[in-house]
Blue-light-activated histidine kinase (Methylocystis bryophila), 338 residues
Amino acid sequence: MPLSGFEGMFTELIEAPEHARRLKMVLDCLPVGVLLAALPDGRIIFGNRMIETMLGHPVRYSKDAQAYGEWIAFHECGKQVEAHEYPLARVLQGEQNPTMECRYMRGDGSFIWIKINGGPLYDKEGKLSGAVVCITDIEGMKQAQARERLMHMELHHRMNNALTMIQSITNLSARFPSPEPDFREAFSGRVALLSRTQIMLSKNSWSAIPMDELVAAALPETLGHSQIETSGCELSLRSDVALALGLALHELKTNSRKFGALSQSRGHVGIQWRPLEGASDNQHVVEWTESGGPMTSPPKSCGLGLELLEKILPMQLGGPTKLEFEAGGLKASLVVRA
């Protein structure tokens, strides 16, 4: 019912008991809280059932507008709402339709976000005779807004992380010159991997990515490819670690295709992950083990892929990376902090 619909009813409430009873029945059926206050002092004369349910305590029949402070609420900044700031008081001071959003302290000490809309009430002669406020529970809306703000902040942060990683790769590329076709293929592969990981993060609301899904994104060959086998415990990685580990797996795959097990038809790569023994801060170890490929030996010079694996990515993974160039194939151990 619009606020103007209460005009005329206010006088009935305080003058005619039968009309007051019927009005109370109507107001008690409304899905919003309702308070009525009368001039000249602003005494609260009525509150419906919904306001008691919403606020968790009986109606407080404040004796005048100065006593509205017994309804305890706080502004978003944390400052307590003063008696004269409530829309009920502001209507009595001459405002037409004041509104307010605040965190109200319920009867059990918990808090709820509410929205208060106020409006004037007039007597039969058209003179201001009191005020009415409708109070709405907006806790769910506020929580949704907070989640949306957090998601936007997270998105901004993660996009900055991805951009920083791309900038780092670009800057490092200048230190490791290669023929243009090779550079273009390697660079586009890394950016494509970051893009796939970003898409996965967005689908997971920028929270955590399951390890098996990350491996599938970094190594599409794992899907139905007999040369690559994966196994491990249940593990979810936060977004910054997922980006770094995905790139590390991509670098290992690229190296294996050129020089390692994946360059041979009989070659095999095993990828396992497990909790790091003795770790106390949720660290896990990811092991990449090659077999059936050509004999390996440490490279004579450090390329961009090796630089990323040994020096750059460990800072984001949260642990060291170890590469062992064994006769049977490359073995890499990457410590990650989930």
